[in-house]
Design a protein that fits this description.
- It is a single chain.
- 38% of the residues are buried.
- Helix content is 55%, strand content 12%.
- The protein is built from eight helices and five strands.
- It has 193 residues and is an alpha/beta fold.
- Helix 3 runs parallel beside helix 8 and helix 5 runs parallel beside helix 6 (123-134).
- Helix 6 (123-134) links the parallel strand 3 (112-117) and strand 4.
- The longest helix has 24 residues, at 165-188.
């Protein structure tokens, strides 16, 4: 079988979406992250499925990758990574509650909450963002499709404007590397051991 036409079509579509990205949205989110770091605030991040993997990857890249060139460190926590805690909450309450419970225990005013959802309508992420907003947290949405509820609720958003879950998820992962690489390069020039 020759899949090259389909492969080319996918990549061409993804390239067009990359070209249409709003750099001001991305720049605003970078500044929210930097402000949180400088002020010693925590950054909570979560998602379901592929978005959970992206949230976990963000956490590793910021806590390990960028932190090695910083005196004042990032403090990211991926709420999707605690499988035992999530399953206990899902079993005792509801899967819709798996992210809001840890936020109630740990999040404070001016901490940052990042919700990742292709549709922007994942109920458990929406509930967590609603809670973050209610206590004066700063909220960021990484969404696709029409942006959904998360885009409407968030203080800041990066909206991948495409009705394709795979390309939306690809670009959410690119956002991690784009921001991490940009910050790493910036800070490594100014870091003195």
């Amino acid at each position: 079988m020759d899949y090259t036409k389909d492969l080319k079509k996918y990549l061409e579509e993804e390239i067009e979406v990359i070209k249409s990205l709003d750099l001001e949205e991305i720049n605003a989110v970078i500044n929210v992250l930097e402000e949180a770091r400088i002020n010693g605030k925590r950054i909570f991040i979560c998602g379901n499925g592929g978005s959970a993997a992206t949230a976990s990857h963000f956490t590793g890249d910021f806590n390990k990758g960028i932190n090695e060139v910083l005196d004042v460190k990032y403090n990211f926590e991926c709420l999707s990574d605690n499988m035992a805690g999530m399953m206990a909450i899902a079993n005792d309450y509801s899967y819709d509650e798996v992210f809001i419970h840890p936020l109630r225990n740990k999040m404070h005013k001016d901490d940052v909450f990042i919700g990742i959802s292709g549709s922007g309508n994942s109920v458990n992420v929406v509930k967590a963002m609603d809670y973050a907003n209610s206590i004066g947290g700063k909220t960021v949405a990484l969404v696709g499709y029409e942006g959904g509820k998360l885009k409407e609720m968030a203080d800041y958003s990066i909206h991948i404007k495409i009705n394709d879950m795979q390309i939306a998820e690809d670009l959410h992962m690119i956002m991690d590397h784009l921001m991490m690489h940009t910050l790493y390069e910036y800070h490594s020039k100014n870091y003195k051991k």
